[in-house]
Amino acid sequence: MEAKAAKELEKEHLQEKAKEKYQEWLKKKNAEECEKKKKEKEKEKQRQAELQEKKEIAERKFKEWLENSKNKPRPAAKSYGYVNGKLTGFYNGNSYPEPAFYNPIPWKPVHMPPPKEAKDLSGKKTKRPMTSQPHRPSSLIIHKARNNLCLGTLCTIQR
């Protein structure tokens, strides 16, 4: 009986000790978690402050640019316009602006050798002999004078 009582007392003592250790561990974990949350909040506040500072700097720079852009010299409007590639003496809203760039080396077409005619290697003659027919002039003849001004499909003859 005494041995049983001693064992039970020892068991209770061990359980109390285990509870104390668990409570200490739980307090330690809660403290670590609180510390972690504080650090996260601090980081978030710092990030928000950095973003706010960047915003303020950007707004300040934009306002400075706006003020400075009012004082910058504007390019002068071109006083001449180009119509059909020819310079006009006045600027017109419908005319093209002066060309900003032109190629100093004129374009040259690439030389292509003429295609070689395919020769009939079989040696057979064609079924129909080709006959040359006299050239028949067409009844509709179109004459284009050099002094015509043509724009698209509209052509007017200047006489």
Automatic annotation (TrEMBL):
Any coiled-coil regions, as ranges: none
Where do Basic and acidic residues bias regions lie?
114-123
Q: Tell me any Pfam family this protein matches.
A: CCDC34
Q: Which InterPro entries match?
A: CCDC34, CCDC34/181
Q: Where is this region: Disordered?
A: 33-55, 112-139
Coiled-coil domain: residues covered = 3-107
Q: What is this protein called?
A: Coiled-coil domain-containing protein
